[in-house]
Write a structure and sequence with these properties.
alpha+beta; two-stranded antiparallel sheet; 8 strands; 10 helices; 276 residues; 6-stranded antiparallel beta sheet; single chain
Length: 276
């Protein structure tokens, strides 16, 4: 009988308890490296090794070699002025090459540029990213005034306009997984009855439009973007900033119509053809 490969499925004749047993692997150095990356995402100006050690509850000795090696292979960069470490652009390059983000941004960017020019509003493109949404593309209002989210911003999947659009058109299994992850991050249970009611409304409308839950004077409008398979891949959103001096030329209803058309054209570019 051939010897089973390490990590292969348990033999069919193995005991039931062997089949159901879950093995947990540990890679301390790898875990520390990802802890450093997660931490530095909150320190755009960089952090010293001592700062990282304090924030992570680890010793300087535990982190020093990890940080140096991460710098040597290009994932961190150290300032020659103050010795602070920041995450390098290699992470962004890897993310774009290893995920669908590059194709999505290539399809979305020209439409978003046109949308920003036509509406005189900023817009951003959000994709699911674990417990959060992630802004992978943005276009600012070309005029003097505007409201925009930064590239790479994390979006609340449960309460935000973009997040609820992503959930509303996702499969039930995917929604369940995202809600569980979001609940774990928030440290409190999600009101599932309320959420399902909200998602039903979004599905019926085909989009979402409501006052921003965090910014006065902003109405969020978001439409889904679909891939060839019919799966939702992102949400195109305009945080509509209403001016009070009467200088606004494009009203909210018109912006919503232009946003819908842009989202549909991006979906078409990605190969999606809605059923007639």
């Amino acid at each position: 009988m051939a010897r089973a490969r390490k990590g292969a499925d348990v033999d069919a004749d193995a005991a039931p308890e062997a089949k159901t047993k879950q093995t947990t692997y540990a890679a301390p150095a790898l875990e520390k490296a990802f802890e450093v990356l997660d931490l530095l995402s909150a320190y755009p100006q960089g952090a010293l090794v001592t700062d990282m050690a304090t924030a992570l509850g680890r010793s300087v000795g535990e982190l020093f070699r990890i940080v140096v090696v991460m710098e040597q292979i290009g994932y961190l960069q150290r300032s020659p002025i103050n010795d602070r470490y920041t995450v390098s652009y290699k992470i962004l390059d890897l993310a774009y090459r290893a995920t669908p983000a590059q194709n999505l941004t290539r399809a979305a960017t020209p439409e978003m540029q046109q949308l920003a020019a036509e509406t005189e509003q900023s817009c951003h493109f959000v994709v699911p990213n674990g417990a959060h949404g992630l802004v992978i593309a943005r276009e600012e209002n070309p005029g003097m005034r505007g409201f925009a989210l930064r590239l790479g911003a994390a979006i609340d999947m449960i309460h935000s306009c973009s997040g609820q659009v992503l959930l509303a058109f996702s499969s039930a299994q995917r929604v369940k997984r995202i809600v569980a992850q979001a609940g774990a991050v928030q440290g409190k249970p999600i009101d599932l009855a309320w959420l399902e009611q909200r998602l039903a409304i979004v599905r019926e409308q085909g989009f979402d439009r409501r006052q921003s839950p965090i910014t006065h004077g902003v109405t969020d409008v978001s439409y889904p973007v679909f891939a060839f398979s019919g799966e939702i891949v992102g949400a195109l959103t305009v945080p509509y900033l209403e001016l009070i001096d009467g200088s606004q030329r494009v009203k909210l209803d018109a912006v919503a119509g232009l946003l819908r058309a842009a989202a549909e054209r991006i979906s078409l570019t990605l190969g999606h053809h809605p059923a007639a």
